[in-house]
Amino acid sequence: MKVRVLGAVAALLLAAPATEAAAKSIKIDAVGTVQFGSDGVGLFGGGSLAGAAFSFTATLDLTNAAYLNSGFRTDILGGDAYAYLPGPTPPSLGNAVMTIKGIDTTIVANWNTTLTAFAGGFDQQHFQQRFLPGAEDVIKAVTLMEQPGFGLFDLATYTPPSGNLCAGGHVCNSSNFQAEVAGFSTFAQLNPTSITMTELAPPPPPPPPIPEPGTWALMIGGFGLAGGALRRRRQTATA
Predict the structure, then answer these.
(1) CA distance 86 to 64
(2) Torsional class of 235: left (φ above 0), alpha (ψ -120 to 50), beta (otherwise)
(3) Are 144 and 127 spatial neighbours (Cβ–Cβ below 8 Å)?
(4) Average pLDDT in the 76-93 region?
(5) Phi-psi group of 87: left, alpha or beta (phi > 0 → left; psi -120 to 50 → alpha; rest → beta)
(6) To the nearest 10°, the Cα dihedral for 1, 101, 59, 92?
(7) What angle do CA 78, 80, 86 make, to 5 degrees?
(8) What confidence tens digit (pLDDT) does each residue in 64-78 have?
(9) Please, which pLDDT band fits residue 3 given cuts at 50, 70 and 90?
């Protein structure tokens, strides 16, 4: 499934132009249980993960996203996996945290992050970190999926769907978490009971910078010089 999805993304990237992103952020939250899985890496204490509760949270900064619309699917994407796009490489969209058995593991979305909608199909939120420093291979990924999905969208006017994406006739049963570290692997087949997406308010603009003491001294000195010049001009006019 994952190979087919990523292959479709690659075909889209070669065929569709990127458009400018909107200045907004989307927060994704998911909770549920692990259907089956085991923790060979030890990220969540090791052993079986079956039946454990999980939670997932991530924030996508759409300001820095690349956006592709092929007519049958829409992608918001970022990360080094898309370095073959024209122009600068789309930056990471944000980080994520997966929690199982009450233990957190961070997913730094520095390789592949997508928010994908299919016309009449399903929606996908995919985060992946890949770090390859010699033999210490580190791969972490989470894929959240729901169907039948909410259809295509335009990033400039994109508003995330409201409410629980796993309710109201929708199904969330194809999600997973996987990790590989130095030859060991962790896998969890996820059964989300709730996936929600929230548009975050933009942060307030930063306050104007406070002048440094040296700047104040220059300003005061400038006012003094201007005042002295004005006095000399008046004295010359009086004489």
Answers:
(1) 15
(2) alpha
(3) no
(4) 70
(5) left
(6) -60
(7) 75
(8) 788 888 888 888 888
(9) very low
How many beta carbons lie within 10 A of that of residue 170, not counting itself?
A: 18
Quick: pLDDT tens for 149-176. Answer: 888 888 888 888 889 999 988 889 889 9
Percent of the chain with pLDDT over 70: 69
Q: Which two tokens stand for residue 161?
A: 């769907």
Alpha carbons 1 and 66: distance in angstroms, whole number: 23
Contact 111, 144 (CB under 8 A): no
Domain boundaries, the chain: 2-200, 212-239
What is the rounded CA–CA span in Å between residue 231 and residue 3? Answer: 80
- CA–CA distance, 115 with 77 (Å, rounded to integer): 6
Task: Say what the pLDDT of residue 10 is.
Answer: 29
CA 236/CA 239 separation, integer angstroms: 5
Encode 223-238 in three state secondary structure: HHHHHHHHHHHHHHHH
